[in-house]
Amino acid sequence: MAIVKSKLLNQLSKSYPNILKKDLEKFINIILSEIKNALKRGERVELRGCFGIFSSKNQKSRISRNPKTGEKVNTPSKKTIHFKMSKEMFKKLNNEKE
């Protein structure tokens, strides 16, 4: 089951009842838009310790194959997002003690 922005907003509003829900929503939107804008500019986003690092990488153009027809197709170059989790998150996911 995935966590969606509305569930995240509900959890934050329960944790911080003194902050208005619309302010929390603005806060979440600002953080997500800043992450997107930084990746568009080719910058790294580092949320060290607790989460991990986002970075954008360029994928070269190539000639690929349509698996249904076997026809060769030109695939243009594009940007992809790479995520590397922090050591703390790795340990939490694998139930390891520090």
In short:
By secondary structure, the protein is an alpha+beta fold. The protein is built from three helices and five strands; from the N terminus they run H-H-E-E-E-E-E-H.
How is this structure best described in words?
The structure is a single chain. With 98 residues, the protein is of the alpha+beta class. It has three helices and five strands. The chain has helices spanning 5-15, 21-40, 87-93, and strands at 45-47, 52-59, 62-65, 72-75, 78-85. The strands form two sheets. It has a three-stranded antiparallel β-sheet. It has a two-stranded antiparallel sheet with strand order 3-4. Helix 1 packs across helix 2. The radius of gyration is 19 Å and the shape is elongated. The mean pLDDT is 91.
Residue share in helix: 25-40%
SSE order, one letter for each helix or strand: HHEEEEEH
* DSSP E strands, number: 5
Spatial strand sequence of the major β-sheet: 1-2-5
**N- and C-termini, Cα separation:** 27 Å
From the alpha carbons, calculate the radius of gyration and give it in angstroms. 19 Å
Tell me the overall shape.
elongated
- Please tally the helical runs, counting DSSP H or I stretches of 4 or more residues: 3
Strand content: 25-35%
Q: Quick one: biggest sheet?
A: 3 strands, antiparallel
Poorly predicted spans? none
Indicate the structural class. alpha+beta
Task: Give the integer mean of the pLDDT values.
Answer: 91
Walk me through the topology.
Blueprint: H1 5-15, H2 21-40, E1 45-47, E2 52-59, E3 62-65, E4 72-75, E5 78-85, H3 87-93
Antiparallel strand pairs: 1-2, 2-5, 3-4
Helix pairs in contact: 1-2
